[in-house]
Amino acid sequence: MHIGIDFGTSYSAAAAIVDGELSLVRFGAAEQFRTAVFFPELVPDPDAFTLTPELEARLDVELRLARTRQREMAAAAAARGQAPPSRSEGELHREALRAVRRQWMEQQAREATASVASFQHALFGEEAVEGYLESGGGNLIESPKSMFGYRLDPQVRKVIVHIATHILEHIRLTASRQFGTPVRGAVIGRPVEFRSSMGAQGSAQAIEILREAAAVAGFDQVSFLEEPAAAAMHYHKSLDARQHALIVDIGGGTTDVAHAELGGGRAPHIARSWGLPKGGTDLDVNLSLRSFMPLLGKDSIRIPQHQFVEAASVHNLPKQREFRKQNYRLVAEPYGARLRALQEPGATTRLNQLAERSKIALSTSALHRAELDFIEPGLAAEAGSADFDAAIETFLGQLERTLATVRNDLAEAPASVFLTGGTSRSPQIKARVEACFPGIPLVQGDPSLGVVSGLAVAASEPAVPA
Ligand SMILES: Nc1ncnc2c1ncn2[C@@H]1O[C@H](COP(=O)(O)OP(=O)(O)OP(=O)(O)O)[C@@H](O)[C@H]1O
Ligand SMILES: [Mg+2]
Distance, CA 451 to ligand 2 centroid (Å)? Predict the structure, then answer.
């Protein structure tokens, strides 16, 4: 059996067509789950390296080896009548320390790989976030999709593949149980452009990671379909007459646009697509910087401001690590204590959850209060419409520029604009899309399940798109 999988930045879902009907896979009581995994075991953290007595002993051995090598090289140089290599004891020590650290990292990675591969103890979705916050340890990985397109060293890449594998295995097993038959194939959604630090190469790496993970998770046949094309499939089924439509999917991590010929009983034809690698998670970071971080000293204390960005960027593990490494002992109170509280395990995740909740609340109400007791008893942040407007402005500008490019690229205006994705729930976003296509009917699809429904249709067809 083949299913459609929407591996979203924020939420994931799966579905299949069973006896001609769309059937969504249920995760507990829900039709989607937050794309998060919690491993109680530790994934290697290079910053956790400290010299234990055992590692001191290994360092001694490495140092002796380095000195021996140095003597041998000196003897060989002397035999050739050349000057002996001169390296200080300090340099030898650093070289030995590097070797020990490398061995330690490799060992940590082996242990982490073994524990991840065991597929035990992992929690998914909201349970993952809760498990992490309750245990105060282990590792929470939220929105791994945001990392697929980034430059990853081989060890980190391995960990990311394992995480994706876990999520896909979870989906495959849940679907197999629900449908009562082994699920072996999938059409997986992909953004037009993944969030990436390497341009188009990032998207290629992301697809490779998903392919590898899907194979290990037990899928024998996998193909990919651009997310807006999937959303279009669903819309397509509802159109009696053939038309040129524009699909706009504004999600957690990316904004995807497709121009398609749809409806009229013929197969849909996706003519062109555009991607903006920005979405709802960027709004959370902006709102956090605007409404929460000033309570932690942003704009009042003299520490480099990028440290607040690092603290707010929960989906960027290197940035989070940078923030945790800082020493705030000498920062003036009350900010020093608050920053130290934010460095505690789980605190940045909690703060980001509150930023997301505030963002959602502010899309329909004028004021929202977030309690920050975990930072300091009684501390609270109030955010209002002006904060929301400021937090969303950059994104609205980017969205407008992307849609202007789309308009310029099209020979004629689309017959309708189909809007989907969780971030499209915000009235400001909807208004901006409307303003970019004046006079053209705006059709709102299911913001959460449009893409997965289209993927299920694609998965049910004999020749799945490549
Ligand atoms: N009412 C709302 N106002 C603004 N944003 C909202 C609202 N409700 C949900 N969101 C945001 O929608 C985003 C999730 O949307 P969606 O489920 O479409 O993303 P995704 O498919 O996981 O991500 P992507 O497609 O980018 O990989 C989150 O950032 C969430 O905070
Ligand atoms: Mg999506």
Answer: 7
Q: Which ligand is nearest to the CA of 352?
A: 1
- HEC-encoded secondary structure of 71-118: HHHHHHHHHCCCCCCCCCHHHHHHHHHHHHHHHHHHHHHHHHHHHHHC
The pTM of the full predicted model, rounded to 2 decimals, is 0.82
- Identity of the residue numbered 208: E
Question: What's the average pLDDT block by block, 10 residues per block, for the chain (466 residues)?
Answer: 96 96 95 90 68 90 91 90 85 90 79 56 86 81 91 86 94 96 97 90 96 96 94 87 96 95 89 94 97 97 95 90 94 97 94 97 94 97 96 97 97 95 95 96 90 94 57
CB-based contacts of 462, cutoff 8 Å, min separation 6: none
Give the rounded distance of the alpha carbon of 378 from its chain centre: 32
Q: Ligand 1: which residues within 6 Å by Cβ?
A: 8-11, 145, 227, 251-254, 279-281, 356, 359-360, 363, 421-423, 425-426, 448
C-alpha to C-alpha distance for 417 and 444, rounded to whole angstroms: 8
